[in-house]
Amino acid sequence: xxxxxxxxxxxxxxxxxxxxxxxxxxxxxxxxxxxxxxxxxxxxxxxxxxxxxxxxxxxxxxxxxxxxxxxxxxxxxxxxxxxxxxxxxxxxxxxxxxxxxxxxxxxxxxxxxxxxxxxxxxxxxxxxxxxxxxxxxxxxxxxxxxxxxxxxxxxxxxxxxxxxxxxxxxxxxxxxxxxxxxxxxxxxxxxxxxxxxxxxxxxxxxxxxxxxxxxxxxxxxxxxxxxxxxxxxxxxxxxxxxxxxxxxxxxxxxxxxxxxxxxxxxxxxxxxxxxxxxxxxxxxxxxxxxxxxxxxxxxxxxxxxxxxxxxxxxxxxxxxxxxxxxxxxxxxxxxxxxxxxxxxxxxxxxxxxxxxxxxxxxxxxxxxxxxxxxxxxxxxxxxxxxxxxxxxxxxxxxxxxxxxxxxxxxxxxxxxxxxxxxxxxxxxxxxxxxxxxxxxxxxxxxxxxxxxxxxxxxxxxxxxxxxxxxxxxxxxxxxxxxxxxxxxxxxxxxxxxxxxxxxxxxxxxxxxxxxxxxxxxxxxxxxxxxxxxxxxxxxxxxxxxxxxxxxxxxxxxxxxxxxxxxxxxxxxxxxxxxxxxxxxxxxxxxxxxxxxxxxxxxxxxxxxxxxxxxxxxxxxxxxxxxxxxxxxxxxxxxxxxxxxxxxxxxxxxxxxxxxxxxxxxxxxxxxxxxxxxxxxxxxxxxxxxxxxxxxxxxxxxxxxxxxxxxxxxxxxxxxxxxxxxxxxxxxxxxxxxxxxxxxxxxxxxxxxxxxxxxxxxxxxxxxxxxxxxxxxxxxxxxxxxxxxxxxxxxxxxxxxxxxxxxxxxxxxxxxxxxxxxxxxxxxxxxxxxxxxxxxxxxxxxxxxxxxxxxxxxxxxxxxxxxxxxxxxxxxxxxxxxxxxxxxxxxxxxxxxxxxxxxxxxxxxxxxxxxxxxxxxxxxxxxxxxxxxxxxxxxxxxxxxxxxxxxxxxxxxxxxxxxxxxxxxxxxxxxxxxxxxxxxxxxxxxxxxxxxxxxxxxxxxxxxxxxxxxxxxxxxxxxxxxxxxxxxxxxxxxxxxxxxxxxxxxxxxxxxxxxxxxxxxxxxxxxxxxxxxxxxxxxxxxxxxxxxxxxxxxxxxxxxxxxxxxxxxxxxxxxxxxxxxxxxxxxxxxxxxxxxxxxxxxxxxxxxxxxxxxxxxxxxxxxxxxxxxxxxxxxxxxxxxxxxxxxxxxxxxxxxxxxxxxxxxxxxxxxxxxxxxxxxxxxxxxxxxxxxxxxxxxxxx
Length: 1244
What we know:
The protein is mainly α. It contains 61 helices and no strands. The N terminus and C terminus are likely disordered.
């Protein structure tokens, strides 16, 4: 029987699906929805499933009924059904037809979270939608959800996602997606994702990251298309990064690109021009001419020529323009191209050619409106005429007047630069009469320009313009009452409009101010009504600056009406500003519904104390107060307490207690008690007015919380006396019902006075009477017992708190101040078990407070041990901050590692790692800092450095660079510069610092080899422009390895010659020369300072010689080496080096003297008499021993130190290693790339 029922159910379901299919194919969406509704309500029919919904949604989507699709999806969620992939396709197709991009993103986020599989078409549509709405966060969220659901993601998926991130202007998200593709999904890019990533970085201005991405792609051997190179080169040129653009263009050619486009060649030409490499720029131009582009576009060549406007190679601009004239008719050439050509011919002195080009441009504009209103072409001609020294001055004057006539007829407003340029032409020709006329005309023109009125448009449909035009005419009489009335009527009518016209109101208000018309009371009211109605709060803020209070007839009532409307609308901040506005002008506006407003503020826990205090003062101004008025003032006290304005609470209490209404009630009650007998029972006709209990409590707490005066002579005891008086009055008024509260207040007052014996006695009395203390009393008792070292009483209070239950039978929440005092007392008593038990069993006694009190009691080690996974991130931050300040950063590092162990390294904020590593480095714990950063460097803890933010990557690299440099780990240092896909760009300063460490190494030979390898990385990886300092450090390394000069006269260049050739090839001679001069000056200054110390402290031991990166001898040898090989030194540099002759060998000093004389006599680079280039060996500069016969001192004997006055000046260098041959072999075995030749050994 059950099988028959199942068969019938399947058959019915099949029929339902067929019927829905027919509706889907015919587009009968209403019938499909009705069928779904019938199936849902009829229990005899099969239950709804995803396939039924799929067909119904397809029918709706086919007919474009997108408004019903969210409801159907919601019904599927209610029925616990997951949409099919086809369902998502149908919905996305419908949304695409309507271009509802936001709905597509929302649908994709929900569908992927449910694990729905997306088709390729749907995925690409979703990524397009994310890009259209610029929602990069949803892009990465969808990708993570797809990966989590087990979808088979490919490089194509990630390329689309990276493109969407680029459309959203989020290159950081694009980089995160790329890292996720490689790190998480283990996908290897074939160049497509790299292209999208680079395009995203370039279009969003992140050019440094784009260059690093190019470098990584090249190192991986990936081939990128020519358009992506062209896009990056164009952006680099536009941002004046010409040298990087040339390097990128050369890299493109090296990657195999044989036929770059004309546009690419043009941008490369501009890059070479900007980098002062004219020969390469001409090569690019010749290549463009050889290409003979079919159907050339004028815009492309016009842009190319305009890029040469400020180029130094003026002849190239002329050549480009001549070629453009061959390709296009004059009417096709842009006026900017003519401007550049005229300016170029003017610089070259071809004035007639410049005039001819101007005439050609004017001739091409005849019969059209093409004559330029751009003043640049006229200025170019004027400048060319002013430079002329060959033509007849009469011709120049004639041409200048003719151009001026054309400019005056076409340029609407002639600015001062045009007058200045034309005046230069007349002055150069000597036509003084014309010059005087021009000056007079210019002054008149500038005066007329200053009177031009700039109008502002407010509405696109023209309504606003028409409204303003009503008053556009002759100036009106200031202060005209008719105009004020007119504007009053207009603004009043606008405020009553059905749609928002506040923008028009603002325009008329500004027009009134411009005409000097006053803004009246009725205009303020009307403007307020409109702004409150349409919530234009910005105009209400501006209205305060527009209103003149003196011009209002009744300022108090007018501003009071404004404040009342703003407060009734719930805009408390703006209402407060208007109240302060009235107070600044010396009046207090009446506010409506004060009692209701104060009640609402009290119930909402508002902190708008300015409003509450103002309304309370206005209430106190009444002649007689009733109970409702006093309750309203109590509400104001609540607001002031919320805002921590305890001084105002005391003021309000004193004002209420001293009000005549309350004094009359108290006097009347006293008289009745004195006049009546004990047996009589008289009734008073006076309604009693009682200060609420909460107002008493607020005033007492305010007095107790007020800070003590910092002035030593001021007595603060009046506060305690006053608190005791108010407490006594509270007991008299509210009497018997609050004996427990009264005792709690008394305990608080005694605790504030420091009478801990009385506090303990009062608390024990409350316990004996069975009264429930409040949190203030409990807190005071715990502090008192702790100060008395009565730990048993503290533990007793802890047990009482555990036994106090709420209405649900759970342990009641402990107040924060009580919890802190309890935990602090237990920590001071070293009751660690009780402390742990309180944290676990007492709500309110949390682990965060326990850690805080442990730190406060200087138990930092115990706080780290007490730390567990229940601690919040904020408490971890606080504890970590305290440990880093404690002077023991190892504890901070330990806490950080423990937190990472509990929650994972991904939960550790990068700033915390930066702080603790800085502290470790500051205390000299470099090993610990290295181990901490190494977790990110090797990715051993599940987080790699590439996944971290850019600033953290920079800190890690720079900190490890410092640590490796201090330890002399040069190989590890070099690997830092070979990291790929870093989110921050390496600078040349990083290489300088690393090479300085190498130069200062105790093993100078190994350091020199490491320095050369770093220089190789600098010149063969990336696009970092080397500095002069890096070149000097490299030459210093060659000097120390005896590879500065060639060993013999062979044709093989030395390493130093190759380095110097690289300097000359890239045009860095001036940079190197300036740096060499700077280093020599620094060395000379150090020698002078050292000599002064020697004079002052002669014969005093303990002075070590000042060390420098480069010694005078090394600087002298490098300078002479550069002088011999194409970089002559100056007379000043040779003279400066000769001033250091005491620190130079005689041979070096003699050659420097000869070089100086040769330069002074104008002989240039001349070899010294009787010497060859190699006559001065470039041997290593080693420390000279002061006594060659010094005997070896036994290890147990203390060596006598040489006085600093007689120590060798630059002999304090670190001792060198004896592994000279090993260092040379290591250098010769390394590959030096295309820039550097291999170092040969001495045997070779």
